[in-house]
Structures are given as C-alpha cells and as structure tokens.
Amino acid sequence: EPEVTQTPSHQVTQMGQEVILRCVPISNHLYFYWYRQILGQKVEFLVSFYNNEISEKSEIFDDQFSVERPDGSNFTLKIRSTKLEDSAMYFCASRRGLATSRPYEQYFGPGTRLTVT
Amino acid sequence: DAKTTQPTSMDCAEGRAANLPCNHSTISGNEYVYWYRQIHSQGPQYIIHGLKNNETNEMASLIITEDRKSSTLILPHATLRDTAVYYCIVRVAQNQGGKLIFGQGTELSVKP
C-alpha cells in the first residue's frame, strides 16, 4: 500500500539555522499538509497546500515558515531561522481530491523529529 | 468546527471490545465525525468516519446517536497493538483546505 515518506527521521540544528524537512506524498494525492507535535502536546495544523499554493495556514505558520512543491513528487517545509520552540515532531500528510473514492482521509507520514539546540 | 469531548484515558483487556465515547453536542447538520489514532511517536492514522448512519470497516465500527450529539468508536477485539491515542474530530467534509483539528484524545491502553 502506498505511504507518505519523510526525510530525515531526525534533524538536529542550531538556533538560527535554516532547515528543510522533506516529504514525498502518495503519488495521486492532490492536497498536502504539514502538522507539528511538540513533545507531550497535541498535534497542531500548520498549513495546507493545493494546486501549487497555500490554501490555509495557522497562526503558527508565520513568515519564518514556507512550503514548496518543487517537482511532481516532493513537498517541503522550510524554517528560515529556527528557534528553540520549533523543536517538535513534524508530520506531513496528503489526501486524494474530490471525485475520488475516500477523498477526505488524510494519510500521515512517520514524521521528522526536529531538535533545535 | 464543532468541539468534541473525550475521556482522557481508558483501559481495555486484550480480546475484548474497546468502546471509545465522544461527545459533540454542538455538531451541525453538515459536519462529519472522524476518528484517527496515533500509536506512540507515529503519524496519526485514519480509522473511520460517518455522518449519521453507523459505519463499519475492517478496523472498527462507528455508532452515531440519532441526535448526532455523541458517537462511539468500537474496536471489536482489541489487541496490544491497538494501544494508542484515539482522536474524535468533527468537521465539515470540505472545510476550507481540509485541515484536521486534533484535541487531546483518549489514551487507550490494551492490557494482556
């Protein structure tokens, strides 16, 4: 069964550095998402992406964050200047579009654990 | 999207049915009930969803009350691998970009 994949599984970076988290969504999916989960807390929505543009973003997703789908397969989350409070597990998710079977189920990747020191 | 209330934690004996309740008393007519779960340190996993009829798939059953103000997720024969946090999420099927708003969920412990 197709899966969402994410790399790296663990990223350690110093405060102020830029990081890029990478995701390969399921190939025929059209909607893409990033969520994060700070240790011990709930999963939080960051951003949704459709048709090569952001369709919705949360308050967390400020100017330090950006997303890109540089080619037909990858979906990336960039944090321009990391802060200690960006330390979290970041999950990518994707879903099929409308007019398909099971259009609303989101499939999540295994996550990237980001540690900012 | 409607707010949901779930118990913080529950225990279940292996092989028995796990019944996880969710209250969503402010649900609107066009809002669906979704269930996801998160096994420790993994990404959330879709389980099932419904609007007003009861639903069943290979993983679980979803029972929605007639007034739609509450629902129950049933895992018919819980195994140790079902130990996870279970999230009940209520939202309009086509809400904007389709984001999921996760609460704290119910931590289900399946014990031998």
Describe what this molecule looks like in 3D.
The complex is a heterodimer of chains A (117) and B (112). By secondary structure, chain A is mainly beta. In chain A, 0% of the residues lie in helices and 48% in strands. Chain A is built from no helices and eleven strands. Chain A is globular and about 45 Å long. The model of chain A has no long low-confidence stretch (mean pLDDT 93). Chain B has 112 residues and is mainly β. Chain B is 0% helix and 46% strand. In chain B, strands 1-9-8-3-4 form a five-stranded mixed beta sheet, with no helix packed on it. Chain B has a four-stranded antiparallel beta sheet with strand order 2-7-6-5, with no helix packed on it. The model of chain B has no long low-confidence stretch (mean pLDDT 93). Classes of the chains: A mainly beta (117), B mainly beta (112). The interface between A and B is medium-sized, with 27 and 23 residues.
Percent of residues in helices of chain A: under 10%
Order of helices and strands of chain A: EEEEEEEEEEE
Classify the secondary structure makeup of chain A into a structural class: mainly beta
* Count of DSSP H/I helices of chain B: 0
Based on DSSP secondary structure assignment, what is the total number of beta strands of chain A? 11
Characteristics:
heterodimer; A: 117 residues; mainly beta; 7-stranded mixed beta sheet; 4-stranded antiparallel beta sheet; 48% strand; B: 112 residues; 0% helix
How would the blueprint of this fold be written?
The complex is a heterodimer of chains A (117) and B (112).
Chain A: E1 5-7, E2 10-13, E3 19-24, E4 31-37, E5 44-50, E6 53-57, E7 65-68, E8 75-79, E9 88-95, E10 107-108, E11 112-116
Parallel strand pairs in A: 2-11
Antiparallel strand pairs in A: 1-3, 3-8, 4-5, 4-9, 5-6, 7-8, 9-10, 9-11
Chain B: E1 9-13, E2 18-23, E3 31-38, E4 45-50, E5 55-56, E6 61-64, E7 70-75, E8 84-92, E9 106-111
Parallel strand pairs in B: 1-9
Antiparallel strand pairs in B: 2-7, 3-4, 3-8, 5-6, 6-7, 8-9
